[in-house]
Amino acid sequence: MSRGRESTTLLVGGTVLADPESDAVTADVLVRGGVIDRVGDLSRERADETIDCTGRWILPGFIDAHSHADGTVFSRAVQEANLRQGVTTVITGQDGVGFAPGSGAYATEYFGSLNGTHPTYTGGGVAELLAGYDAATALNVGYLVPAGTVRHEVVGDEARPATSDELAEMAALVEVGMREGALGLSTGLDYVPGIFATTAELTALAAPVARHDGVHVSHMRGGYEHASGDGIAELQTIAEASGVRTHVSHFHGPAQLVRRLVDEANDRIELTFDAYPYRRGFTLLAMPVLPPALLALGTSHVVATLTDSRSRAALLDSWAAVVAARPDMGPNWAEHATIAHAGSEQYTWTGGMTLAEAAGREARDPLELAMLILAASGLQTTAVIANPRQREIGELAEVFRHPRHVAGSDGIHLGSHPHPRAWGTFARFLARHVRDRGDLSLGEAVAHLSTTAAETMRLGARGRIRTGWIADLAIVDVAEVADHADYARPRTLATGIDDVLVGGVPVLRAGALTGATPGTGIRRSQDMKHEGGTR
C-alpha cells in the first residue's frame, strides 16, 4: 500500500440496516479512511481488506450509555467483552465519580472497585484524560464531567452546602470540562460527596452544560423503585431552571411507574434513561449494609468504626433490623448478596459466595462479616444483589420498549464474580428481546442500542450508516447471537458477533481481537459535524 493512501475495507453481501427509520437492504459497504464511503452494489470495487458478511446484518456500532470501564478499557479482555457484543463506544465518568478533573486519587480510592485504576492519567483535566484514550484502545470512550469529583476538588467531602465562591469555582471546572470535549455532567446523589449537593448547587453546575448542549446524567437521589418520583422531580427542577437535557441512569423499577414518570417528565423536559436486561443489581457492598449517616463521614472514619470491636458491636445491635427491613434487601438479605469483589486478600475466598454462605463458614453473623470485609478492603467491596421481588422478563421488556430508553450495561469488569451484564447486555437484548421474544424489532433495537444514545450524548456522526459518517460498525448474525455469561460464569463471552470496525478499522475479526487500537476519546466539539448540520 502506498504511503499516505487512505486504507479501505469492503463489507460484501450483508444486510444493511442503516438506522431505525430505514428499510433493510442487501448491500455492500465501502469504508475509506475511517468513514463510510459508499453503500450499494460494489461488486467491482477492490479494497485493502474484504469481509464477507453473507447471512449477517451490518448495523451501526452499539453504544453503552452507562459503563464503568474508565480505567479498565485498556485491557484486551475488557475490549473483547464489549466488542463481542458489538459495542464500539462506552460512556464513562458515571455516577458523579471519575478521574478528571484533578489527580484521579478520589476516584481511585472511592470507585476503584468499580472503575479500576487508570494506567496513564496522573492529573489534569478532561482534555488530558481524553487524550489518554486516543489510539490506546479498540473502543471509543466518551466522558461526563463527574459532579462528585468536582465537589471533592473544591469543597472536599464536607457535609455542607457550597459557598458562593466555591460554587463559582465548581461551575468553572464544569465549564472547562465541557470546552475540552466532555459530553455532559454526571451526578451520583447517593454517593459522597454528591449526596451533600443541594438542588440549587446542581442547577448551577448544569447551567454550563446546557450552554454547550450537553446532557445531565444522574444516579438519582434517595434510591429508585417506588421513591423514583422524588428523584425525577428533582431532576425536572434542575432541567427547567438550567435548560439542560436530562438522562436517568439505570432506571429500573415497576414498569408502569417507570413509563409513567418518563412520559410525565417528557411533557416538560427532554429526558431519556438507560436500563439493562437483568433481574439482579450490583452495588458497593457498603451502600445497602451501612447507615448513610456513617458513610457520609468518609472512608477513614467508617473503616475505623468497623475495625473497633465495640463500635462494630454497637452498630450491629442498632442496624441489623434496619437492613432486614429494607425493601430491596429483606429478612433473608444475606442469602441474596453475593460477593463480587472482596477487595482484600484476607477475604478473597468469599468471592462468588453469598454472605450467608461465607458467614456460615466463619460461624459469624452475616452483617458482622460484611463489616469486617468492608474494613479490610477500605470499603472496596462489591456485591451482586438479588432483589427480593424479582420482576418477570415481560415486565422488564415493558421498560425497554419505551422509546426514550437506551441500553446501558452499568458494566463493571473487576472482581472474581462480577455481574454478567458487562459481558452480555447487548447480546441479550438482541437474542432474547429481538429474536426470541419479539419485544423489539431489529430496527427498534438499533435505536435503543445505538442511534438514540448517539443523539442523546451528542456523539456526532455515529449511530447511523450514512455516507461520510464514522465507520463504527457491528456485523451481527441475528440467528446466532447469544449471551452466555451468567451469575456462576459471569465472564463468558457472547457469540454471534465476530467482526467489528471502529473508526473504519477492523478491531474484531473472525471472533478474535486484531490488536488494532483505533479508539478515541470522543470530544463533543470534535465529532459534531455531519449531514444535516450540527447535533
Low-pLDDT sequence parts:
526-535
How far apart are the termini? 36 Å
Number of helices: 17
- Computed Rg: 23 Å
CATH topology name of the largest domain, in short, is TIM Barrel
The biggest sheet amounts to:
9 strands, mixed
Q: How many structural domains are formed by the residues?
A: 2
**CATH architecture annotation name of the largest domain:** Alpha-Beta Barrel
**Proportion of helical residues:** 25-40%
* Strand percent estimate: 15-25%
If you average the pLDDT, what whole number results? 94
Supply the CATH superfamily name of the largest domain.
Metal-dependent hydrolases
> Could you give the count of β-strands?
22
Quickly give the structural class: alpha/beta
Describe this protein with a few key phrases.
TIM Barrel, single chain, Metal-dep_hydrolase_composite, nine-stranded mixed β-sheet, eight-stranded parallel β-sheet, disordered C terminus, alpha/beta, Amidohydrolase family protein, 22 strands, 34% helix, Metallo-dep_Hydrolases_sf, hydrolase, 2 domains, 535 residues, 17 helices
